[in-house]
Design goal:
350 residues, alpha+beta, 8-stranded mixed beta sheet, 4-stranded antiparallel beta sheet, 8 helices, 14 strands, metal-binding, oxidoreductase
């Protein structure tokens, strides 16, 4: 296991070295690193004492989260289910504009927010310091949804994927994270009782013509909450990452590293959210990331992201084990709702 992580670190040593690369263009002569794939299967059954297999997965997870916050994870959901979800996603985004106009609309405004439904291209800007909005479109799924205008089968596939990822895999991962950090096994899982802050997001990045290499398909940001599971169809390129302190992207222009999607549509890229970094007093890193188009024409890109966030009223406070004797936590307590609301308003321009 140690040799595997040293190999990863050597791959990740390359960073963009000039202004062109720093703003999104890729050096095609260099292959991007491929994340090692860990298996969540040992956490299918949870016992009072972690098994050797669970401890091995947890140790590898801790090594990645301390360094850069990214790892690839398999056995989160059934492959046949994911295939149906990919097909349902393609059908949804292939609808014409008049049909999409009948979809439930994502409402970001404070006081009436749903964080559910369709978000049209150009609606979002994850990095407020970029002048341009992002050309992606998305459909957010929550615990209750309106699929009346969606293509046949979309709602069934989306709801089944919600149950597999949000209700199942997320809770197993929460136990794995607790084992990795030496915490009681239900420490994080207790925050996922209602699942009222979690979101399953279907994403489509339309094709872009050559010459848009400096344009972000998704701007520089850290994910807001506990953890994110990202599935990328056909290993589509464009994802870049940059470790940051405290979950904030202070310098968004330089130091970005390409990340290769696993190349298996059923394997997820997993990254630590900014709230989890606060929860652990920055023992685990929140990793900034973005999706860029590259210098040439960019093909359409499809992804499914599961954003796992603590329940709305659950208090998130730094655990004492992450604070040195005599020191104060770096971050004050917050709640799942307060932190997510502030971050969503920032991203969606509310």
């Amino acid at each position: 296991m140690d040799r595997m992580w040293w190999a990863l670190l050597l791959h990740l040593a390359r960073a963009a070295s000039d202004e062109t690369c720093a703003n999104g263009a890729h050096d095609s002569s260099l292959e991007p690193p491929v994340l090692p794939v860990l298996d969540l299967a040992p956490f299918a059954a949870i016992s009072a004492t972690p098994t050797p297999a669970q401890r091995a997965v947890a140790a590898a997870l801790d090594a990645a989260a301390r360094d850069h916050g990214f790892v690839a994870l398999k056995n989160l959901a059934d492959r046949e289910l994911l295939d149906r979800a990919w097909n349902a996603s393609a059908a949804l985004f292939a609808m014409d504009d008049s049909s999409k106009a009948r979809l439930e609309r994502l409402t970001p405004a404070a006081g009436r927010a749903t964080n559910r439904g369709y978000s049209a291209p150009g609606r979002e800007r994850l990095n407020a310091r970029r002048a341009e909005t992002e050309p992606k479109e998305a459909f957010n799924v929550k615990e209750r949804n309106d699929y009346a205008a969606a293509p046949p089968g979309f709602g069934d596939a989306a709801d089944e994927l919600w149950r597999a990822i949000i209700e199942g895999a997320a809770r197993r991962y929460a136990v794995a994270a607790a084992v990795a950090l030496g915490l009681p096994r239900d420490f994080f899982a207790a925050s996922l009782a209602a699942l009222d802050q979690c979101t399953l997001r279907f994403l489509h990045y339309p094709a872009l013509p050559a010459g848009d290499g400096l344009r972000a398909r998704a701007g520089e940001h850290t994910d807001f909450g506990f953890v994110t599971f990202l599935f990328v169809r056909d290993g589509a390129p464009g994802l870049q990452m940059k470790p940051v302190a405290g979950g904030e992207v202070d310098d968004w222009r330089g130091g970005w590293r390409d990340v290769a999607a696993p190349g298996d549509d059923a394997v997820a890229i997993v990254n630590t959210g900014a709230l989890l970094a606060r929860w652990t007093n920055d023992r685990w890193r929140a990793t900034a990331h973005r999706v860029v188009a590259g210098a040439g024409a960019a093909a359409p890109r499809y992804a499914i992201a599961a954003f796992i966030d603590p329940d709305a009223d659950f208090e998130v406070a730094v655990h004492p084990s992450f604070v040195a004797p005599g020191a104060e936590p770096r971050y004050p307590p917050t709640t799942g709702r307060a932190y997510l609301r502030a971050k969503l308003d920032e991203a969606q321009g509310a």
